[in-house]
Amino acid sequence: xxxxxxxxxxxxxSTLNSTRTDDIRTRSLLKxxxxxxxPRDSRYKKxxxxxxxxxxxxxxxxxxxxxxxxRLFQEGLRKRKLDWFPTLxxxxxxxxxxxxxEGFGVGLSVGAPKSISNDLVRALALVGFPEVxxxxxxxxxxxxxxxxxxxxxxxxxxxxx
Length: 161
Description:
By secondary structure, this protein is of the alpha/beta class. 27% of the residues lie in helices and 27% in strands. It is built from 5 helices and 8 strands, in the order αβββαβαβαβββα. The chain has helices at residues 2-5, 48-51, 68-79, 93-101, 144-157, and strands at 11-15, 24-32, 34-39, 60-62, 88-89, 106-110, 121-125, 132-139. The chain starts with a helix and ends with a helix.
C-alpha cells in the first residue's frame, strides 16, 4: 500500500484483509481458508482434537504475529475464547510445512491451491475462521499494461463463472 501511495508501483498484489485508505481501489482474486498442518501420520484427524481441549499443548508453528494469516487465526481463536500462541515463528509458509513434517509441532497455513507442497503433512480446515483474501490494489486509473496484467490475474485466480 505504501508503495502505491508513493507511486513506486502502479499495481500491487497482496492480502486485502486490512482497511485501506479511500484512494486505493481493490479487486479480490482469491479467498483462502486457514488450515492447521499436522504430520501425515499424526494422531490428529480433526481440528476439534486440537482446539477442543481445555488447554492446547501442541507447539504452534506460524508466520510472525503481524502477518495477516497469524492475525486472522488469533482473531478466530479469540471468538472461541481460546489462547494458543506460536512456539516458533518462521518467515514463510513453506518453512511452516517443513517444520511440521519434521515433527516440531502443528503449523498454521492457508488452504490455497498448491500451497502445501509437502507430502509428509496433512491439512485440517479451520471451518468458521476468517478467510485470507488476496487481490490487486491500485490508485486511480490503471495504465493499459496494468489493466492487461490485472485481467490476466483475474483469469488465473479470480472466481470462475
